[in-house]
Amino acid sequence: MRSERAEEKETINHSEIFASCSFSSLGLHPTICNELRERMGYEAPTQVQAQAIPVVLSGRHVLVNAATGTGKTVAYLAPIIHHLQSCSPKIERAHGTFALILVPTRELCTQVYEILQKLLHRFHWIVPGHVMGGENRSKEKARLRKGISILVATPGRLLDHLKNTSSFVHTNLRWIIFDEADRILELGFGKEIEEILDLLGSRLIESVGKGNEVSSISKTQRQNLLLSATLNEKVNHLAKISLQNPIMIGLDDKKMQPDPLLEHAESVESDTDDELEHPRKITNSSTGDYKLPVQLVQKYVKVPCGSRLAVLLSILKHLFEKQYSQKIVVFFSTCDAVDFHYSLVSEFHSSPNSASEVEVTEMFLRCKTFRLHGNMKQEDRRNTFQAFKTEKLALLLSTDVAARGLDFPKVRCIIQYDSPGEATEYVHRVGRTARLGEKGDSWIFLQPVEMDYIEDLKKHGVSLTEYPIIKVLDSFPLYGQMHRIKKFVSLESHPWLVSLQKALESFISAQPMMNKLAQKAFISWVRAYTAHRGELKRIFMVQKLHLGHVAKSFALKQQPSLVGKSFQKQQSYKRKRDQRQKGQSKRRKINGKT
Ligand SMILES: Nc1ncnc2c1ncn2[C@@H]1O[C@H](COP(=O)(O)OP(=O)(O)OP(=O)(O)O)[C@@H](O)[C@H]1O
User: Fold this and answer.
1) Which of 105, 262, 360, 486, by CA, is between 20 and 30 Å from 398?
2) Ligand 1, closest atom to CA 43?
């Protein structure tokens, strides 16, 4: 039975997430309201939808900064559909594209497209479509030739079609939406976006005339929307070149500073008829503009390097055994690390519970396991994405390819096994849980030498408490007996961990394929560790690491010098290759990592 307190908390959460009005009171067409209620199961708008829908309906440019999982997608889709369905005469495929939605990843492209399909069910003359990297170009060309009214696209592939698909009609384009704008820019698509804005005649130009006003070379009926859960200088720049006199949603006064280029920007919380006293600009992310769900419980797990793997598996085992229904996402820094851990979790069946090594009975983790990263075939990525969505009890091992915008229902827990680097990445990773007022936990693994990262997150308003890992380890019986806490002095010497580590190392050394995967993962992990930039380089210093302990975290028995040698070989190969490929775009580098 739920306690009164729990119920009270739930109600508070409900009113923090949902608005007290109805979709129809926001001005949406009754059929759209019905679809939202009946097809999507939405009873009431979320707060961000209640704020954004009337503004988007009004035709103003908008910048939305709202926490992850607060319903931003419908906040822009519903008003666009409202306008398009009311066009008289009815719009036709031959009229081409009216709305363009730019998203950073293929998975997000599919996700937005699927929501769009549902919402358009009763409006068969409005045609949804998508174009994205990895898909068949000629099939996309054929679909564009027939006409797509609302197009969801990743930037690179869209640019490709804008340049090479002459039958792509966009003369009637009215909306450009940047969903997950921060991620689009972080992935290095800034140039592509500017080129897209130029090609579509939608880039704003700064006039040197009076008051540094921004003027537009776009057609007057254009309306651009920019949505982002985090804000930084790059997003600020995109806002400046794409939004004209925008309405700001979700930005409070503390986060805005005078900026002549956003002179007419207005906040939706203020009376929109009043001019602002001071022109504003979005502040730099280093001063803390992150929106996190209030109910999200954030912890860190302090683990020495050599015990990382055993602790990760112990936590996962604990979580899957304690909770009847549970979905967990674990983030890694590289594709190789995902592949290694995926194979390990899928095959490791030794149990430190057994008194004898022969007595191997069951899988260590009993859950369905999936993996997702940028080196997988598009079809496999799609299948994983769909399958994990529908599972009730499952584990997803992923790179940051899953960090942004993906909406997997009922993910209860996020584990950042490899640290995310930029605090924005932290926010997006944890944003895969605690969506729309639901409960969610997040844990980040940090080594004792990395503890300054907590201070870095604090600067952005993110504060974490320590997760008592020893309690979890103590809960596992070893050889049928509970161990006594006081007998060991450090985490590494905990009998459960010692025994599990031994079992893992034997397992890996007995299987040449697994050993190879572990070595590969080790090399790319160290490489990714050295790639931290700026301030973070001070916290995540490869020099502070003991490579032997790192090897242990991949269950490798080899001496560090052995593993180190192959790493050095790789490094010298990489150096030579990098020299050859000088000038390669930053975007491709980042893609390779995820
Ligand atoms: N009004 C609503 N009522 C109930 N559920 C809703 C409502 N609006 C959205 N949702 C659900 O909430 C979840 C989050 O929505 P959405 O993915 O649009 O959030 P988001 O703000 O774009 O998140 P992110 O920043 O992570 O991309 C989805 O599962 C969606 O179906």
Assistant:
1) 360
2) 3
